[in-house]
Amino acid sequence: MSASPITPVFVRLKLSLLRNGLRRSGGRKAAYIASAVFALLFAALQLIGLIALRGHAHVESLVVPAVAVLGLGWAVMPLFFPSGDETLDPTRLVMLPLRPRPLVRALLTASLVGIGPLFTLLLLIGSVAAVARGGAAFVTGVLAVVLALLVCLALARAVAAANVRLLASRKGRDLAVLSGLVIAVGAQIVNFGAQRLGAAGLGELDPVGNVLQWVPPASAIAAVHAVGEGSYGRAVVQLTLTAGALVALLAVWSRHLTKLMTSPDESTLAGTETAVRERSSAGLGRLLPPGRTGTVMERGLRYVWRDPKTKAAWVTSLAIGLLVPVFNAWQGTGSVYFACFAAGMLGVQMYNQFGQDTSAFWIVALTISSPRDAYVELRARALALLLITLPYATLVTVLTTAVLGDWRRLPEALGLSFALLGAMLATGAWTSARFPYSIPQEGYKNVAPGQAGLAWISVFGGTIAAAVLCAPVIALTIWLNVSARGDDWTWLVFPVGTAYGAVLTAVGLRLAAPPTARRLPEILAAVSKG
Amino acid sequence: MGSSAVRVRGLWKRFGQQVAVAGIDLELPAGRFIGLVGPNGAGKTTTLSMVTGLLRPDQGSVEVVGHDVWRDPVEVKARIGVLPEGLRLFERLSGRELLAYTGRLRGLPGAEVDKRATQLLDVLDLAGAQHKLVVDYSTGMRKKIGLAAALLHNPEVLFLDEPFEGVDPVSAQTIRGVLERYTASGATVVFSSHVMELVESLCDWVAVMAAGRIRAAGPLTEVRGDAPSLQRAFLELVGAQGRDAGSDLDWLGGGSR
Q: What is the ipTM of this complex?
């Protein structure tokens, strides 16, 4: 044990870092203060809300999962925002002569300082207030809040220490690009979950709460509820579980810290990296058509999996395209026609094709010397897209229909979906040639500065044009549905819509090819700003 | 061979107010190792981009092996190989996949592409890293895989923009060896650089560029003249004599603007 304790040093370091947040330039300072105020306001509102929920039946079924989600948040936070907390990065301390045990204690104490821990503390206090009944329960509550908070912090630290190598690497940066997506999709799921709760009541959550009451840190709050109900035995087990988890997490963290501090920095060991074989479509190449078509398709499909920006765009489209129609149907507010949403979301991937290439488009540009080459290139990109979107749009439409039980309308929904998909591919190909823009490779932005107008014209104008192009099929559907004996003929929309979509795509590609071939240098210049 | 590999007439390019290339006339002989030298910002990259069809000139014409770059792209694009500077590669492909992709895009048969890729990866000392993603490559490895991709279809003229920039000496020697073997077979290499010593030791024909204009062009010995080195001859040509020789501030003097 060292004579002078290092814990106060780390706490002061953390306070300085927080204060330095205020010392930045105008805009960033304002953003910093605004986010802090917003977080605290949100926490205060939650606190009030949780206290208001007090005494409500099944309240523990809401509070226990909420604390579990909070714990999950702490676990994934360091993976998505590795630079969020500078004191989280143990590699910065490698040069200091510190022993693991005092270091762990100091770091844990220091991590109690900050907006995140304060937010968590408020939420935990609110949770206890919501579920506690009787003096004994409140006393247990104090212990539970401390334990749960420490488990959250230790969890974040242990995850960060265990993944420090990953976070410093290219893969870690790729992961950060995907974080926006997790938040977007997560928000959708929470949104639908909340709507469902609003309709069905908190009792819906009982089974979830029953499982999570044994999972730290939620188990600590469950213990408070158990004491209130007089089940002291259960409370003891739940508190012991939480304490055990804390000890285990601290041990894991301490072990990783020791290893980090005593082994050389992996990122500087050049040449020891083994070549990673990233094969996702190794066998696929043989199944694709020969020549330019197959080559372009193979690269496109590889990029869906390997390029973080492309992957994020695809997963967002796939997830939202599925969630909106199916969840709406599930809640009874949907219609079969919502399934077209999937086709629309996926069709958007055809937009700004060359922007997705970034400045590597020069390789493509050097091999296009005629409108015919441009046509084959665009057609291959559309085919690669169809390979995923066609089965997926079908699946979403069938699922939506199944949830609604409205099988009679399946053919027309499919026909409309395919017509829309065809129109999106056609307008996407054409706008790719006419209004290309750069997609920055770092960060969350999807448009380079100064090109927002272009992107707006491209995607928004294109989508509206696609909807207008679909008008004949929509008109046919409406006409068949309102006319006297039309119901017998609504199946016609399926072949007609499919054929119409195919024709639109073919025409769109034909129209897009000449401007692509003609404008190669202009397209390259437009997509090279990222 | 007496014919010319590249013929440029009255080439102009402006970016807003700035004139990047100010009326270039240039004739590059075939079968030579040609260096395009000049300080940073002289217009080398802009010129090479226009010659290879990646950038549209405001004015002027470019012919490569007798075909107009803008009117006859089918003939030109099949005959040239390019390694640009400052543009990305498809970095989420492995080195081998990038070659397979480029070769097939160029219309070569798959088996032939794979055979040539194996040999190029071997010669360029990339065989060990062929399954690594290009995004994880070092600068030298990127230049080498870019060179391999540019050579894959055995072009008649190879355009390389700063192929030795940021490249370690071992990789530089490898690249050099490959290029020397390639020109010995009668092909033409045009490469840009601001390192005079490198150009002097590699090239037998040079064009000196500064402030968007060609200051001198011809066989190395002619351009060098009586000066002890190409570096000195170059400094004289761009009128940088007498100032701090280490500075690259070509916009200070030399030009009339």
A: 0.90
